[in-house]
Design goal:
Blueprint lengths: L19 E3 L10 E6 L9 H14 L8 E6 L2 H13 L2 E7 L4 H9 L3 E5 L11 H11 L3 E3 L6 H9 L1 H8 L6 E5 L4 H13 L4 E7 L4 H7 L31 E5 L1 H15 L5 H15 L8 E6 L13 H6 L5
Helix pairs in contact: 1-2, 1-5, 5-7, 6-7, 9-10
Bound molecules: 4'-deoxy-4'-aminopyridoxal-5'-phosphate.
The site of 4'-deoxy-4'-aminopyridoxal-5'-phosphate (PMP) has 16 residues, from helix 7.
């Protein structure tokens, strides 16, 4: 069945089946061939449509989510947009606890999509009552007939990617994929997609992307949750200051950290070289791929798939604004 052939009953039928596009210029100097799985082609413009729809459909099937219910979640923006979109179509109320690191664009988008938004400080510990995790939990407790999506600790986050993103990549590459490079936030994408791909071919390498200021890489390498690693950083949706159970660390071969500045320039480079208007973490994934290449992870036969999680329009006041780049000291 060709997607988009005929009439869809709602926008939700367009979730998933995103295209894979060969990268040419940006990876021209690296050994191997490189392909981007472009998640901005989802109707909510990010990979989060997949998990939001899967978790809501599952809750409906189990009878947990009833007519007129409220959906509550912590979100850096993209999951919120997906939940708000699905709530409109399915008739739910949507309340979101958002980090104050999220761009103004993202917050305005969520409000435009009918969600009630609570803005919470990013730079407090996850167990602080002001953190967006704790705020969401409190709203859930206080709101009758509400469902807490809990993407960081929800197995269905992994399952959504195991059922959709993984099989799509396997099919689109005709089983030729050798490496997958993925930004790790909740870890749902890397874990679900990685699990499916490793089941098809255990030699496929799953390469994680983390941020300086996040605990994930060190935890993966040492098993230690080191709070000394935690520092403020600008990239949204990548890295964590807690250990999400939606990350299956055993599936991930290695993590590489990227800086705010390198990821921002890499995102701008994707736009300029490939004509793909992608978000900040797509830049992080390209930057990490370059760093992995410099460490000789790839050879001429490598078939490398990069997941580009979202669309560039969400970052017009951030990485695509020269004045923001100057404020960060990234541009002269
Ligand atoms: N990039 C962006 C822009 C995101 O919003 C997220 C989700 N937080 C990710 C990457 C990471 O995806 P995941 O949560 O599946 O690890």
């Amino acid at each position: 069945m060709i997607k988009n052939k005929g009439i869809n009953k709602s926008i939700l039928e367009l979730v998933g089946e995103t295209p894979m596009i060969q990268l040419s210029t940006i990876t021209a100097n690296l050994k191997g061939s490189y392909y981007a799985k472009v998640e901005a082609f989802n109707p909510g413009h990010s990979s989060k449509d997949r998990i939001a729809l899967h978790i809501i459909n599952d809750a409906e099937k189990k009878g947990i989510l009833k007519k007129g219910a409220t959906i509550v979640e912590t979100t850096s923006g993209n999951t919120g947009f997906s939940l708000a979109m699905i709530s409109i179509v399915k008739g739910y109320k949507c309340i979101l606890a958002v980090s104050d690191k999220s761009s103004e664009d993202k917050i305005n988008l969520l409000k435009t999509m009918g969600a009630e938004v609570h803005i919470c400080p990013a730079n407090v510990p996850a167990d602080d009552p002001r953190s967006y995790y704790e705020v969401a939990k409190t709203i859930h407790k206080k709101t009758k007939n509400s469902v807490y999506i809990n993407q960081y600790f929800n197995e269905l986050n992994i399952e959504a990617h195991y059922r959709t993103t993984g099989p799509e990549i396997w099919e689109q590459t005709q089983g030729k994929i050798t490496h997958l490079v993925v930004a790790s936030g909740t870890g749902g994408t890397i874990s679900g997609t990685g699990k499916y791909l490793k089941e098809q071919n255990p030699t496929i390498k799953i390469l994680g992307v983390d941020a300086f200021g996040s605990v994930l890489k060190k935890f993966h390498e040492t098993g230690e949750f080191d709070t000394n690693e935690i520092k403020p950083y600008k990239i949204e949706g990548l890295g964590k200051t807690l250990i999400p159970t939606a990350t299956d660390f055993d599936l991930i071969d290695v993590y590489e950290k990227v800086s705010d500045k390198d990821a921002a320039f890499a995102a701008r480079e994707i736009v300029k070289t490939e004509g793909m208007f992608c978000g900040y973490t797509s830049g992080a994934v390209v930057q990490a791929t370059k760093q992995y290449a410099a460490m000789n992870f790839f050879d001429k036969d490598s078939f490398v798939v990069l997941i580009f999680p979202d669309h560039g329009s969400r970052y017009m006041n951030k990485i695509y604004s020269d004045s923001w780049m100057k404020e960060q000291g990234f541009l002269d």
